[in-house]
Amino acid sequence: MDDVDVIRNIDDLVEREHELRHRHGSGEPLTDEERAELQRLEVQLDQCWDLLRRRRASRDSGNDPDAASVRDADTVEHYQQ
User: Residue 1: which of 77, 55, 74 has the closest Cα?
Assistant: First the structure.
């Protein structure tokens, strides 16, 4: 997966997130399944942004960006600087 693929995936996830949030924002309540999907989308977005940042950092430091892979949700969601 290259940067373009990661960005395309981010765009797709954001589009779906906006669909769900728009529905909720217009007064229609989300179902339990939609709330769970929204939570999964948020985690997947965090993972994609993390991967993209690490790919760019690898490239900037002269390393192979393809060596970066998606980190598990727990690592991404509980990362502390």
Answer: 55
- CA–CA distance, 65 with 3 (Å, rounded to integer): 9
Residue 1 vs residues 25, 33, 79: alpha-carbon distances, Å: 34, 29, 23
DSSP 8-state secondary structure symbol assigned to residue 61:
T
Strands (DSSP E) found in 1-81: none
Statement: the pTM of the whole predicted model exceeds 0.85: yes
Q: Return the structure tokens found at 80.
A: 């502390």
| Mean pLDDT by groups of 10 residues along the chain of 81 residues | 95 95 82 94 96 96 95 89 56
